[in-house]
């Protein structure tokens, strides 16, 4: 784990710049919904993304994306932890070891967010 920041703004993991398209699926009011968005930050614990749809904090999503330094599309469970307009902070959930390794490799290869 890499600690980043200090005081109340301290983060568990450093954030890295990325630019990838993603597909997000969930159930809203009992109906399956599919949305497309763009991820622009990545950390070992989650991803920041613009998704042009109103999502409540706590909403569970299934993300489908290809990380910048990988050729394979992955599916990752995530939950909405923060929201500012259509910009969402999504926390990864139930990561398998091979997915965690892929995320760490992409964090290490991507520029650090200043």
Short structural description:
The protein is mainly β and 114 residues long. Helices cover 11% and strands 47% of the residues. Strand 4 and strand 5 form a beta hairpin.
Helix content: 10-25%
Strand order of the largest sheet: 1-2-3-6-5-4
What overall geometry do the principal axes of the alpha carbons give? globular
Strand-residue fraction?
A: over 45%
Low-confidence stretches: 1-8
Global mean pLDDT: 90
Global structural class = mainly beta
- List SSEs in N-to-C order: EEEEEEH
| Beta strands, count | 6
Helix tally equals 1
Distance between the ends:
18 Å
Largest sheet: 6 strands, antiparallel, barrel
Q: What is the CA-atom radius of gyration, in angstroms?
A: 14 Å
Structure notes:
It is a single chain. It contains one helix and six strands; from the N terminus they run ββββββα. The chain has 114 residues and is mainly beta. Mean pLDDT is 90; it is low at 1-8. Helices cover 11% and strands 47% of the residues. It has a six-stranded antiparallel barrel with strand order 1-2-3-6-5-4. The longest helix has 13 residues, at 97-109.
State the main characteristics.
6-stranded antiparallel β-barrel, globular, 1 helix, mainly beta, 6 strands, single chain, 114 residues
Q: Helix and strand layout, with pairings?
A:
Layout: E1 16-28, E2 31-42, E3 46-50, E4 60-65, E5 74-84, E6 87-93, H1 97-109
Antiparallel strand pairs: 1-2, 1-4, 2-3, 3-6, 4-5, 5-6
